[in-house]
Automatic annotation (TrEMBL):
<feature type="domain" description="HTH tetR-type">
    <location>
        <begin position="5"/>
        <end position="65"/>
    </location>
</feature>
<dbReference type="Pfam" id="PF00440">
    <property type="entry name" value="TetR_N"/>
</dbReference>
<keyword id="KW-0238">DNA-binding</keyword>
<dbReference type="InterPro" id="IPR001647">
    <property type="entry name" value="HTH_TetR"/>
</dbReference>
<dbReference type="Pfam" id="PF17940">
    <property type="entry name" value="TetR_C_31"/>
</dbReference>
<protein>
    <submittedName>
        <fullName>TetR/AcrR family transcriptional regulator</fullName>
    </submittedName>
</protein>
<dbReference type="InterPro" id="IPR041583">
    <property type="entry name" value="TetR_C_31"/>
</dbReference>
<dbReference type="InterPro" id="IPR050109">
    <property type="entry name" value="HTH-type_TetR-like_transc_reg"/>
</dbReference>
<feature type="DNA-binding region" description="H-T-H motif">
    <location>
        <begin position="28"/>
        <end position="47"/>
    </location>
</feature>
Length: 196
């Protein structure tokens, strides 16, 4: 395996772009090479196979879509109530919207994992790790609601992100006077999170 970390990172990011644009079927080493603007055969020198590339894309996506520690620290200075949870949900929506390609690639990873048991295991572990981390963060920050609230928020936000980033017109006007996505984020929090 080739060892240039900058080249590897560029190839993984190129893989994210290909995955988001063409889906898992379009994710070939040749397509990654073309997206990265490198000679044909380069990606095959950096990854043992397609599953290796997908696992590295998974790792990269979690880094790309992670919250900014400075933003989190700033938010945690606020009172620990529903409005703070709502602010965290707005931050999540903003990050996914800013890196729409990354989030769409993450959705493609879910679909690919549903078809390949060897990928399903590692991807399930990483996604479950994210959920467990969110639950622990919520507990540690002293935010209102318990594990059930975090789990239901996770499911609601996953649905909102899916619709907003793939078929945004589905949600337009579904609740008259409620903006998409920000108004829906507010409604999710109001519906799920206790005030204190």
């Amino acid at each position: 395996m080739a060892g240039n970390p900058e080249r590897r990172a560029a190839l993984v990011d190129a893989g994210v772009e290909v995955l988001a644009r063409q889906g898992a079927r379009g994710l070939t080493f040749r397509a990654v090479d073309a997206e990265a603007g490198v000679p044909v055969g380069t990606a095959s020198n950096y990854f043992t196979g397609r599953d290796d590339l997908l696992r590295q894309i998974d790792t990269r996506l979690h880094a790309r879509l992670a919250p900014d520690p400075d933003v989190i620290a700033g938010l945690l200075a606020r009172p620990k109530d529903r409005s703070l949870v709502t602010a965290f949900m707005h931050d999540l929506m903003a990050r996914a919207t800013r890196d729409r390609t990354g989030y769409l690639a993450l959705l493609e990873m879910r679909l690919e994992a549903s078809r390949h048991p060897e990928l399903r295991s590692s991807f399930t572990k990483s996604v479950r790790g994210d959920l467990d981390e969110a639950i622990e963060f919520h507990r540690g920050a002293g935010l209102p609601g318990g594990d059930e609230v975090v789990t239901v928020l996770y499911l609601a936000m996953l649905g909102l992100l899916l619709e907003h980033l793939t078929l945004p017109d589905v949600l337009e006007g579904v609740l008259p006077g409620v903006g998409v996505p920000d108004g829906l984020v507010e409604r999710i929090a109001e519906t799920i999170v206790p005030e204190k």
